[in-house]
């Protein structure tokens, strides 16, 4: 008998061709479109058209932020006088530095030091005249604008952040590192190669422009293919519905822990970041350590999925997967692992199960996952009512948020690394950075449904409903403090998506034993941290539920770093909370409606 959640055409039990999803008939039809009047459609259509010109940024929100800053600065003569004084002092500093450079033109001495994360001027060539004077002048100017856009009394914090961010973006455009005549490294390369680097750079630009226009992936991504050299851990899809496929991976040990692992990845990208190449696959590492692993592979939604909401992702995603895993493993409790947005949804599901008295989970592991969004980093720049309304109207028009629109926002947050550094190396130096599996995965982006993304941004980012006990599942709210299973929480030091201070707040909200790990790296590279990866370290400490709270910076300063990957720490933690090894479970459970449908990585992962 087929599982009651979904009815398949018998022919679709076999694997569908790559790039095509299996057709299916659901017993519950999609939600109807929200009713929109003609007048509302006019307003929404206008803003949706405008969004195509502004890359999804609301000009009204930007104008409001600028006006707030400008009016308060106008009404602050003391602040303006302070800025005049700072400008005079910086001018004298630069003049004194110029005089010093005239006597010692190639001095390593500086009058201002770049921020630690600013790598634009690290080359020794920037210490030579006149480039030392050029980049020092730029840094002093950048520092002055930071002083001008911050610390103006009366400006709301969100508006201050937007204005400071916008000023920084505009200054980054005119950085001397971005131009041939003011970048000594580019000049040296040009003279050394007789200008051939610029010829190659022009060819690179033309190729990138053609690929972008054709909707193709970046150069080199074709060398990485899902199912060939990425997402190759063996297994089978054992369940499929309109929103996800559930993959059960083949065990690699004679015995396994009886408690299975279910991994819920984010649906903002394809699932296989946790099963990249053979040497850096978290799935393979877990199976090699004697665990039975299941993974959700989300569908890439289109306009027809516009009305799928957060509750659909919880029920058709996590709840359906938990039910399948328990039936296949004979009712065993589950070690649940969630990554990024998938971890947030998993926490919501765990809180709902705890509220309802359902004893399904054995443990909860959250990787770079935010629960409290009050310190969500620079992503908060794009989160206010004006900006969200603008974004919602753009999604209303097309039914989803496109991957290119999300990519643009993330690139702005790290424009020096992801935009200008790319331009310098690829177009001015004429050098193609080799494609790696993580970059190829990053280029395989997905869309997000209109309703789900709107609910996520408003309820979680804007209103912080989950952390403050207002997020409803059913007709009652859920709270993180109801979760009683032990938690393993991982933050990454250089995370621009889920800053580790924000991830750490799980300690403040929960009422259970929490093992917190802080690892070096960013949102993706810090999680894909296989043993043997060079220059890796992490900090780890377990806090019992009755232990007094320690603020994140104090915790970091008091916790000694450990060299190596944090992955073995996770498997040791899971093993300590698992029963003795036993024979592996069967692949699927055909008698209960979960037959193996096709080989991993399934079909949804190929949707473009």
From TrEMBL:
- Domain of life the protein comes from: Bacteria
Keyword terms of this UniProt record: Acyltransferase, Transferase
Would the keyword ATP-binding turn up in this protein's UniProt record? no
One GO BP annotation is: poly-hydroxybutyrate biosynthetic process
Q: What is its EC number?
A: 2.3.1.-
Domain Poly-beta-hydroxybutyrate polymerase N-terminal as annotated: residue spans: 40-79, 117-286
The UniProt entry, under InterPro entries, shows:
AB_hydrolase_fold (IPR029058), PHA/PHB_synthase (IPR051321), PhaC_N (IPR010941), PHBC_N (IPR022211)
Q: Keyword Acyltransferase: yes or no? A: yes
Signal peptide feature range: none
What Pfam families would the database entry show? Answer: PhaC_N, PHBC_N
**Region of interest (Disordered), residue spans:** 1-31
Under Gene Ontology molecular function, one entry of this record is: acyltransferase activity
Name by which UniProt lists this protein: Poly-beta-hydroxybutyrate polymerase
Taxonomic source organism = Thalassobacter stenotrophicus
The top of its lineage is: Bacteria, Pseudomonadati, Pseudomonadota, Alphaproteobacteria, Rhodobacterales
User: Which gene carries the instructions for this protein?
Assistant: phbC_1
